């Protein structure tokens, strides 16, 4: 880190008269983004200007702490500033290398007539985003401290449309801010001001305190934050309030701001953390194969799936709920397995086939039989990961339990996936990269309701801003999956090519494949692109996208490239521009396409495959059926 002399001069000028109408001017490394912190008549506020466009006009900034209002009658002092620039390598991320380049500013905010009451405000400004957090030292806390309310009010220069996370339902939006009041909206919160102006709000490093929600209940173009924190007796920091900016909606999900707000990797040896694909028993229960075999919760079914995984470049086998008894019964002990399942035999068989086993663990069993005891047993058996489900407690309890689970899983070399309305991803996978994914959205066939194409289009542009998603994509038996299976409740809308495309558009540490081996074998030529997909990609880029309508995403793995495209319920033609390819190279492109008569309800399983040659100057028009998709695998030619 290096000091920036010009900023220190600005600080000196400010501190010479810090109780008069003054402001501090904070800037991004490339000078495109400016945050001005004001203390006009001893009332604190800020504004934001991006590339000359005022996004946030003067906005109140501060907290209510122990009944004290820190937005008025305050002094801002003790400014320090640094520039930081590093590049680090991900273990589990959208791209292999991440640049972390920002200017950081720290100020002390104290009451004018009671300087013993104070906190520090830390602001980080990136070229396409900014974040701030509140820091309370032990001196500021005294015996006990209660953050009662966040008084910040974001006043935007103009009206906007917004979209937001909506748990296991289709995302909220588009909603015109001026047209509808909502007291509680959960981030990621995506805003569109114009065709070339976007902003997303989320939190970085949710590690101790309950997550905030967003209040959009006033009449103006403003937003507030809802917070609910317990009393604190030790030094602490809030999570980062994070703002990602872009001229394209794709800029928001391409952003690395959230992971950069978290501490560096704390796991010394990460060789055991290996993203990949997984077979899954849960949705296959009741499936009858052509040889008469009926899948169920038993070791024989698991072995059949492990065998398929071993032969088809699928790295894992997920054994889901009820393998140790009813998951919601406090009598079910996850250090044993129920009748019909021999977990030791299964582990030995999987090891011989070079397949890792992921074991489900319900919060009830973890707490009743001892979390560490259970995780140690999983590790001793040879499991590679844990799917943790239905965590209970207050939001703050869930934050603390999530951190505890992740840290103990790291201790026993277990990767972990959180399900059932988990605490939002917040970039924390940087610190503990064994946190590979979360069910942060409507997962297919889940919640006993259908999942439609418009949800698939928006999840990469909204939910995925937060981090990696486990959404169980990759169905091949779209016509009949709901027939005869006990855990598929409704017909699945979509096309089989769209199912393949989702495995490219959705970034996840574990791509959990929901269908039976037999259904994948029936479409073996289509499954070929899934075999070719790496467990970890080198890069991620949104080629083209429009909220609610379509999305195209590019993933790179060495000299191979993958493109996944999805559309909503409307058929459309997209132009794929291959300008992202290195100049001079020739590539064999295998195209996986909807058939001419494909449709997400009426003809779901028809597809075509063709090959052609492309280079960096190629442009290709591709057709997507209503509710359909398109996938491309590019291989460099010698």
UniProtKB/TrEMBL annotation:
Stored InterPro entries: Aldolase_TIM (IPR013785), GH (IPR017853), GH-type_carb-bd (IPR014718), GH97_C (IPR029483), GH97_catalytic (IPR019563), GH97_N (IPR029486), Glycosyl_hydrolase_97 (IPR052720)
Cofactor(s) this protein requires: Ca(2+)
The entry's keywords: Calcium
Record carries keyword Calcium: yes
Span of domain Glycosyl-hydrolase 97 N-terminal: 27-264
Pfam families per the UniProt record, alphabetical: GH97_C (PF14509), GH97_N (PF14508), Glyco_hydro_97 (PF10566)
Keyword match Oxidoreductase: no
Domain Glycosyl-hydrolase 97 C-terminal oligomerisation: from-to ranges: 537-634
Residues annotated as domain Glycosyl-hydrolase 97 catalytic: 287-439
Domain of life: Bacteria
Subunit structure: Monomer.
Name of the protein: Alpha-glucosidase
Source species: Algoriphagus winogradskyi
Taxonomic lineage of the native organism: Bacteria, Pseudomonadati, Bacteroidota, Cytophagia, Cytophagales
